[in-house]
Design goal:
Structural class: mainly alpha
Largest sheet: 2 strands, antiparallel
Distance between the termini: 22 Å
Order of helices and strands: HHHHEEHHHHHHHHHHHHHHHH
Number of strands: 2
């Protein structure tokens, strides 16, 4: 390994070192605040190492990792979202019983797996990164372990993740059996089989099924609402944003590097998954009275919209598709994270604010948090002046260019249903408070300064990307050029 390789891997090395240091700190002196500070410092140092790594990219750091602008962009995004999880997780676990220092350690290890995943250029690093991420998430979902539903959610995720890993490994084995290689770049011609099934194509389909479990695509979505509801809110935010974001970023690299857009069979499968996922997510979210379950089904629907962009790559400009998908993925991660952060901020020590009744009259009790949640829900619905509108607009652009009229019809139908259940929450927040409640009646009336600043920055970014997205889209276009 060369010096440039070590510099390129610096964000991963720094984060891995932070994991070891935090583990030793917890073992020597169990202190909640100290553990939190060490974890935040590890994320900040890893972020600060990104500009150093930029100086030597693109670099193939061993045969397993490709560090380029695409990898560093998503590494930075995942680290920022992981930092948000730590910030909002601090107060959440501080007021709850138990020794919760390991939550921060597990978050760092999961982040390490996520940024390894987005830098992967080989099936070996793909599997290592994915399993590092997944195994950490098992324990994150089980916090706090004294709650039965948390353990039940973790057990469901464990079982289905095991099934997913079996499909993934079998698919990799079939590809290796035909090509004798595991590097993504060595497999671009593997689908030139005249539309006939081959070991490699069957292997790719099995890997797609494995990704379907991880991303909760229909019909592999059954675990999602139960896990979202059972996990503690910071863990739910992490699973919904970091986990899915990292897997989608890796799938986009795999998709473009191996030129999977040349397969008609994959187009048919992806089209079916897109329509099924959009309809399943939106229909099941319509009458949900539990906010966590509603956001779970909402995330399923948004994964369906993302699959529409993937379908467009089969007949459209692949670079425009990559740019559109990266923007939609960024917006999805930020809005989902922000939504769960608001729910976390509203959750008192003895329970979580997850029922629709918890939001009755929120505009009158906590107007700033209610305004934030409204903006985030409108962004998820794709309303103008938010980043969500621009993301949906790009779905229509690539869909029209590729003549995906049937799928665009389902996008319109799904967006209409989504608007209903998002506005349902907003209407509940606009109602008069029950029993003459005032802003002082809630346990968490005032947000700590750090949480307030972090959430405000997130809202500003979502509005800015909805009003002036041009420069950022140009930047994403330059980043997307490095894929494959």
């Amino acid at each position: 390994m060369t010096g440039n390789s070590l510099i390129a891997l610096l964000p991963i090395i720094v984060l891995a070192t932070a994991c070891v240091v935090l583990m030793l700190v917890i073992a020597i002196n169990r202190n909640f605040k100290l553990a939190w500070r060490c974890s935040v410092a590890g994320v900040i140092l890893s972020l600060l190492s990104l500009p150093i790594a930029v100086e030597v990219i693109p670099t193939a750091a061993t045969a397993l990792m490709l560090i380029d602008r695409y990898a560093l962009f998503f590494s930075g995004l995942l680290l920022i979202i992981g930092g948000y999880t730590l910030i909002f997780g601090y107060r959440y676990f501080k007021v709850r019983e138990g020794e919760n220092e390991e939550f921060f350690l597990l978050t760092l290890i999961a982040l390490l797996g996520a940024i390894t995943l987005v830098s992967s250029n080989h099936f070996a690093s793909f599997f290592i990164g994915l399993e590092t991420l997944s195994v950490s998430i098992f324990a994150l979902i089980a916090y706090p372990s004294q709650q039965r539903r948390s353990l039940e959610a973790a057990f469901k995720y464990l079982l289905l993740s095991g099934v997913s890993s079996a499909f993934l490994l079998f698919g990799m084995a079939l590809i290796y059996a035909e090509t004798g290689a595991l590097a993504f770049s060595a497999m671009s011609p593997l689908l030139n089989s005249g539309g006939q099934l081959s070991y490699s194509l069957i292997g790719i389909i099995m890997i797609l099924i494995a990704m379907g479990f991880k991303l909760s695509l229909a019909p592999f979505h059954m675990w999602t609402p139960d896990v979202y509801q059972g996990a503690p809110l910071p863990a739910t935010a992490f699973v919904a944003s970091v986990s899915k974001g990292a897997i989608l970023a890796l799938w986009l690299r795999l998709f473009m590097t191996m030129e999977l857009y040349n397969s008609e069979i994959l187009l048919a499968i992806t089209s079916f998954l897109a329509i099924a996922t959009m309809m399943t997510g939106n229909l099941l979210a319509l009458l949900q009275n539990n906010i966590k379950r509603m956001l779970a089904y909402s995330s399923i629907a948004h994964l369906g919209y993302i699959l529409v962009i993937f379908c467009a790559s089969f007949t459209s400009d692949s670079r425009l598709v990559s740019e559109s998908l990266m923007f939609y993925l960024l917006v999805y991660m930020l809005t989902t994270l922000g939504s769960f952060c608001v729910v976390t901020a509203l959750s008192p020590a003895h329970r979580e604010a997850e029922t629709l009744e918890d939001y009755t009259g929120l505009f009158w009790r906590q107007p700033w948090l209610a305004t934030q949640f409204t903006i985030l829900l409108l962004a998820l619905a794709g309303i103008p002046l938010t980043a969500g509108f621009i993301a949906k607009f790009y779905v229509f652009i690539v869909g029209v260019q590729s003549h995906l009229w049937l799928m665009l019809w389902f996008v319109v139908l799904g967006s209409g249903m989504g608007l209903f259940y998002y506005l349902r929450v907003i209407r509940e927040m606009l109602k008069q408070p029950k029993d003459g409640q005032t802003g002082d009646s809630n346990e968490n009336t005032a947000l700590p300064t750090m949480e307030w600043i972090a959430q405000t920055i997130l809202i500003v970014i979502i509005i800015w990307l909805g009003i002036l997205p041009g420069d950022f889209m140009t930047f994403l276009g330059s980043v997307s050029q490095t894929i494959g």
